[in-house]
Structures are given as C-alpha cells and as structure tokens.
Design a protein that fits this description.
Number of strands: 12
Distance between the termini: 43 Å
Structural class: alpha/beta
Bound molecules: NADP nicotinamide-adenine-dinucleotide phosphate
Shape: globular
Length: about 300
C-alpha cells in the first residue's frame, strides 16, 4: 500500500489518482475529509492527519510499503521555517517508527544548499532527516520552479498592466507543471527502482525566463506587448503582505528570489531525457492561467 501526504494538493492528487488508476492500494492523507472525497470515490482509503503530528502520521503510515511525502506550504505562518522543521521532524519520525521501506519525497532544485534559499532550506532539512533512516530507500525529487507560481501574475496584470516580480527578467528557470511532478512520483512508486538515498531533478519541458513567460501569457490573454517588471523588494513585500502572506514568509520568498538571481540556487544536473517532463508552459497557460485570469475579471 502507498501512503500519499498532501493527497488533495497539486502534486499529491496526481500521485494518488495515477496509482489508483493502476489498481494500487492508496491511503490518501490530508486535513479535510471533504477535500479527499474525490479520491475516496476512486477507491482510496482516507486518513486525516496534520503533517506536524508524528503520532497521527505513524498511524497513517501503518503497514505501508511506500509513501509520497511533502511539506505543505503555510504562507500565513509567522515562523514558516519552524513549521517546516516541525513537519519534517514528524514525517521522518513516523516513517522510522512505521518502518516504511520506500519513500519518494518532494524536494526542490537548490535543496543541496543548507542556507540562503528561503523556504528551500526546509526541503534541504527534510532530505537530511529522511537520509538518516537507514532501513528506507529514499528518492528526493528536486522539482524545478512551479508554473503555478505564475498564477499570482493574474492579479498583477489586472491591477498594474504588467507582470511583476523579484526575479531577473533574463534568468532562465527550469519551469515545471505540477502534474508532471505527480506523474514522475507515481512512476517512481510503481517501479520502485531506487535504492539507498538518491536525488533526481525535474526540469520541466524547457527553461524559460520571465520575459518569455510574460510574452506567452500576454499572447494568450490578448495583450501581446505585456511587459515584465523586476520590482524592488520593498515594493513587492508590501504587495505580497497585502495579498495575505505573512511578513516572515514573504521575506523567505524574497531570499529565494535573490538566491535564484545570484545563481546560489540553481539546477545542478544538465538537462536530458531523465529530467525533462512533457507539459509546455503554453499548455499550462491555456488550461490554468487563462481560466484564472478570466475568473478574476468576472469577480
Ligand atoms: N513553488 C515552487 O516553485 C516549488 C518548487 C519545488 C518544490 N516546491 C515544494 O512543493 C511543496 C508544495 O507541493 P504541492 O503544490 O503539491 O502542495 P499543495 O497543493 O500546496 O498542498 C498540499 C496539500 O497539503 C494539505 N495540507 C496543508 N497543510 C497541511 C497540514 N498542516 N497537514 C496536513 N496536510 C496539510 C492541503 O490539503 P487540505 O487543506 O485538504 O489538508 C493541501 O492541498 C512545498 O513543499 C514546496 O516547498 C515548490
């Protein structure tokens, strides 16, 4: 049986659905039973647990052969890194106690660094803690920059008439659709070909910079000359806090952007068939960005 954390989330629901479609037993873990009903309807066992609760997670992992583990984001937390560390402590302790043999973890490019990468430091720590579990085979999927991060631009474009962010306009990023991450994780859990402790980067379909991203978005929403503006941190901090993120979380996001701009945080593997995934940014924009942008217009 496979246990899936964050089973209602961007990546977790794809992992769970893919495994169920292949006739596998799945225990779907989340905080909200209603959110997990679609997976229950597809045959998953539902388990309610908070990722910071080691004893609930130990029960969630009971009799599991394998698990997909991830740290859910908590962007309103006033101490985001402490939340991440509580969650990774609980996950690692529960895996150890329950004796789960095969783990696929959701990590990030940049998780090789122990500091200076904002929220990615929490994923570095998750990797380290899972690597200390001698009896488990662990595959850390170091995903690229989520295409979903660009959804925040829908509001910026409406309000400012431009895309805006902290990242350099010419900085190429390995941009990935979260469906492709879920599919890669499900594939790893089906094949169970990893041994010991391994990392694998996932780079998405191709590298793109924010100038290119903005042109693709602009073309899709009928604004072919849409500009991208790299704004100063102070301006972005105020806007992001106004959107509901904690000042602490915004500080970490800006630290990560600085690490991307300086090259401190970067992909380490050369791009190749093993880390390239199928979904182009144009497909993400058509299927997710444009509907989100139109919904905002309607609201
Ligand atoms: N953004 C990027 O560019 C990027 C790149 C690489 C890696 N990452 C990492 O990817 C991860 C996010 O993955 P994702 O997008 O698949 O996650 P997600 O969709 O944001 O969240 C997963 C699910 O976790 C559940 N959840 C939230 N808080 C919880 C808690 N305290 N206990 C138990 N469950 C909880 C939520 O469902 P319920 O509300 O139903 O419980 C949520 O649907 C993060 O660790 C992030 O650092 C991000």
């Amino acid at each position: 049986m496979h246990v899936i954390l964050g089973a209602n989330g961007n990546t977790g629901h794809v992992v769970a659905k893919t495994l169920l479609a292949r006739g596998q037993k799945v225990r779907a873990v989340g905080r909200n039973a209603t959110h997990l009903q679609p997976l229950a309807a597809n045959g998953a066992e539902i388990f309610i647990a908070d990722v910071t609760d080691a004893s609930a997670l130990t029960k969630a992992f009971h009799q599991a052969d394998s698990a997909y583990v991830m740290l859910p984001p908590n962007p309103t937390s006033n101490d985001f890194r402490a939340f991440q560390d509580r969650a990774s402590d609980a996950i690692a302790a529960a895996i150890q106690k329950a004796g789960v043999k095969n783990i696929v973890s959701l990590s990030s490019f940049g998780a090789d660094k122990s500091s200076g990468t904002g929220p990615v430091v929490g994923l570095h720590n998750l990797e380290q803690k899972l690597n200390q579990i001698d009896a488990a085979n662990v595959l850390h999927l170091r995903a690229g920059y989520f295409m979903e991060n660009t959804l925040a631009q829908a509001g910026a474009i409406r309000m400012m008439g431009s895309a805006i962010g902290p990242v350099r306009p010419d900085l190429k990023l390995p941009m990935i659709d979260t469906h492709d991450i879920g599919a890669a994780a499900a594939d790893a859990l089906l094949r169970l070909a990893f041994r010991g402790k391994q990392t694998q980067e996932l780079h998405g379909q191709r590298d793109l910079n924010y100038t290119e991203v903005t042109t693709i978005i602009g073309t899709a929403i009928g604004k072919p000359n849409l500009p991208y503006i790299q704004a100063p941190d102070d301006q972005l901090r105020a806007a992001m806090v106004q959107m509901g993120m904690s000042d602490n979380f915004v500080g970490l996001i800006l630290e990560m952007a600085g690490a991307l701009n300086s090259g401190h945080m970067r992909a380490l593997e050369p791009r190749g068939p093993g880390n390239t995934t199928p979904t182009p940014f144009e497909t993400f924009v058509a299927q997710s960005f444009v509907p989100a942008y139109q919904q905002q217009a309607a609201a």
